[in-house]
Each structure stands twice: as C-alpha cells, then as structure tokens.
Amino acid sequence: MEEYHSGDEVAFSPDDASNVVKECIEGIVGGVDYSQNKVNQWTASIVEHTLTQLVKQGKPFKYIVNCAVMQKSGAGLHTANSCYWDTTTDGSCTVRWENRTMYCVVSVFAVAIAL
Amino acid sequence: MQKEEKQLKGPQEKMKSTIRWKTSKEEPQRKSRTSSQIPIPRRCSSTWMMKKEPRGQKLPDQDEKLIHYQTIPERRFSTDRAHEIIKHIVDERLETVEYSCSCSGISKELSDCIKTAVKKLLYDRYKLVCYVAIGQLKDSVVNCSSRAIWSPTSDTFTEYIYKNRSLFAVCILFAVYKE
What Gene3D superfamilies would the database entry show (chain A) (predicted)? Predict the structure, then answer.
C-alpha cells in the first residue's frame, strides 16, 4: 500500500501511458515482419507487458488493456470506444503503431480506485 | 456454575472476551477446569466494554460518522443481460451494412449506443467501457487480445462478434465496479 499515492486523487496521464505502450510494442514487434504463427503470442505479450509496466507506476488504478494486430493487406479496420466513468479521475489512451507488414492498435483504459 | 460467553459486536469484533458470572443459586457444577470458584462481580463486565454509551443505545452522531465502504456490489453485473442487449443492437444495426469508410462513424455510433443501453440496466456504482472494432473481410487476419488488472469478484466483461458478407465487428463491454 505504500506504493500508492494516498490522500489526493491522481488523474490518469495519457502521455505517460502512451510512452509505456509504445516502448512495449517496439520491444515485442519492433523490426519484425507479420507471422501468422506468432501473432497470438505477440498480442498476449503486448497486453501483459503493458499491464506490468503500468502497475509498476504504482498509481491507484484498475487497468484494461486491449491490443489488435492486423496484417497489412489492404483491408480496413475502424475502432471506437465509449466510456461511462468519472472524467476527472479516469482516462484512456490509444496508440496506433505500424510497420511494413502489420498494424497494431493498443487501447489502455484506467479506472480510478478510491482510497 | 453456569458459564456464559459474551461476544462484543461491532468494530470490536476482533476482540473476543469471555465474561463469567454466577447466575444460578443452585449448587455450582464444575464443567470446566478453568472455572473459577471465586464469583466475578457483575460490575467488572463494564471494564470489557470499549463503548462508553449505555448498553443497548447508540449515539446517532457516531453512526453518521461511520463510513461504510462497499467493496462488493449489492447486485453483481449480469453479463448475460448485457450480451443480449449488445447482440440485439449490433445485429439490427449492421444487418444491411456493407463495409465502407462510413464504418468509422458506425463504430462510434455503436459503442455509444451499447453504452447507453447497458447504462439503463442501472447497475449501481459500475463504470462501463465499450470497445467496438469494425473491419473489412478481405483475406486478412486480425488478432485481438485483452487483459485487465481489476477485482474479479466484482468486475467483468462480455463480448460479441458479428460477421456478415463484407465486414466483421468485435464488441467488448467491460464493467468495472467503483470501490
């Protein structure tokens, strides 16, 4: 419990989360071509890694991380999200990343815990 | 000797105390090795009481000041109901839709619609996050993965995948309890 910021409410910082997500994506699929055999492993690793890094920040949030990886083949993909929460404390960020052979869209949702 | 045990209720529940006193005028029968022959005067029971108010009465001020943290919801979020609602909305909306650039607006509209409909179920203290992805069916593979750090006793999610001739839609609804 000493890791958490006690007393004042801490608002979610999309910029910090965005940097964390980008580092995780780069670390896992940066410089790699799309592979049907490995894509399952990649999406699982990206969400897990992102969650671990977010929790390490020690902020009082519940996190939801969603990752979609799609091969570049000319097909289109649209994502949207809608949230019913406390806008002063909760927040989200979405990172779109791509390389030569695939797209990766990661969304992070952070819901504050009242301490 | 009759032995009575009395447990204190309320915030002091962790502290259990036993008060022994003689209540019968009959010849005492020893049932326990630890029972004392010396009767403990009744007034000693007051030393065990942590609350200073008279027995059986509650001070209204103290009750009002007590903060009741509800860490578990009274009514847990029903994923079945939410799934039915999502299915109904998505099937109706995308039945005649062909994939095009306008799917961007449709995905926003769908996520908003689903969130509004599930809000009407009136689950107290639940925050909702609705994620919708609409993609074109065109010889490509999409892999989607989610993970969360939350309280599994109260938080949950439901998902629905829809497909027609030209597009697919993935709708996920997360319900997070405000602790």
Answer: Tctex-1
- Which residues are within 8 A (CB) of B173 and not within 5 positions of it... i.e. 6 or more apart? B82, B86, B114, B115, B118, B128, B129, B130, B131, B157, B158, B159
Q: How far apart are CA A112 and CA B20, in angstroms?
A: 49
DSSP string, A69-114: EEE-SS--EEEEEEEES-TTT-EEEEEEEE-SSEEEEEEEEEEEPP
Could you tell me which residue, A93 or B53, shows the higher pLDDT?
A93
Whole-angstrom distance, CA of residue B78 vs CA of residue B84 = 10
What pLDDT shows up at residue A114?
A: 79
Choose among A36, A67, A79: nearest Cβ to B141. Answer: A36
Is B58 part of the contact surface with chain A (CB cutoff 8 Å)? no
Mean pLDDT of chain B: 76
Chain A contact for B147 (CB, 8 A cutoff)? yes
